[in-house]
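User: Hi! I'm working on a homework problem where we have to compare a predicted structure to a textbook description. Could you give me the structure for the chain below?
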Amino acid sequence: TVYEAEVVGLTLAAKLISTERNMKYPASIFVDNQAAIQAGENHYTKSGSYLVEHFRRMTKRLAKNRDNQGQNFHLTLRWIPGHKGVEGNELADAAAKEAAK
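Assistant: Happy to help. Predicted structure tokens:
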């Protein structure tokens, strides 16, 4: 589904963030799917739960690793309106739809 593809996108974004060596600022992932954001932040979800759990485990591990390195890591999921000309959002939306096929 598109929702599951969005959650995979969250996971890939977190993986990309994990490759940054010295993050001096809080990290944000911008998403136009409110259900994916809620699933990433809440402790209970049905649809695509294995994907959501993978995302949660990855971000917890990322935060722990950064904290152990003396970096105060903070990740925020932020909602943005879809199809409103936000740079990169149209490409991400197209990729999510393609992945859902």
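For your comparison, note the following. The beta strands are 27-31, 75-79. The longest helix spans residues 49-68. Good luck with the assignment!
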